[in-house]
Amino acid sequence: LGRLGLSEKQCWTAGYRTDDAQVREAVLAVHRGFLRAGCDVLTANTYNVSKVNAQSVLGLGTAEAAAHEERCIKASIDLARSAIATHAHETGRAFEGVLFASLGCFGTTILGRGETANRLHSDDEQAL
Questions:
Q1: Which of 3, 48, 55, 111 is deepest in the core (most CB within 10 A)?
Q2: 68-121 pLDDT, tens digit each
Q3: What is the dihedral of CA 88, 103, 117, 33, to 10 degrees?
């Protein structure tokens, strides 16, 4: 994602940025690259999307954070499915692999406990 022009913050929070056209296009490009390479497993860009992060990083309440988490995960899976459909159309071959969602460990949500948490809670000028 970084090689496609996204900042470090955008890379680590891309799963939350499904409405951002630049992020969406970069994620699609990565998915298409893996599909062109012949992957058997494609992972939706859902790592680090969680209710806990939506609460701590975005300041959302419990119900709002849960709804946000669900929207982001669904949007990321839909994006991966879109890349699969485009690839199938372009190549004339159906994807016979598996699409997974990736869920980060809880430790990544605690400031100072993981590289992702540190990146989520820093760089306020690019805040979510």
A1: 48
A2: 999 999 999 999 999 999 999 999 999 999 999 987 665 555 555 555 555 555
A3: -20
Determine the angle formed by the axes of helices 62-91 and 51-58, rounding to 10 degrees. Answer: 120
End-to-end CA gap in the chain: 17
Distance between CA atoms of 87 and 92, rounded to whole angstroms?
8
CA dist 15 and 108 (Å) reads 14
Q: Is 18 exposed, middle or buried (0-12, 13-18, 19+ CB in 10 A)?
A: buried
Specify the amino acid at residue 100. Answer: F
Q: b vs e for 33-72, b when ≥16 Cβ sit within 10 Å of the residue's Cβ?
A: ebbeeeeeebbbbbbbbbbebbbbbeebeeeebeebbeeb
Instruction: Write out the two tokens for 87.
Output: 């690839």
pLDDT tens digits along 33-62: 999 999 999 999 988 788 887 887 778 999
Q: Could you give the angle at the alpha carbon of 127 between the alpha carbons of 123 and 128, nearest 5°?
A: 140
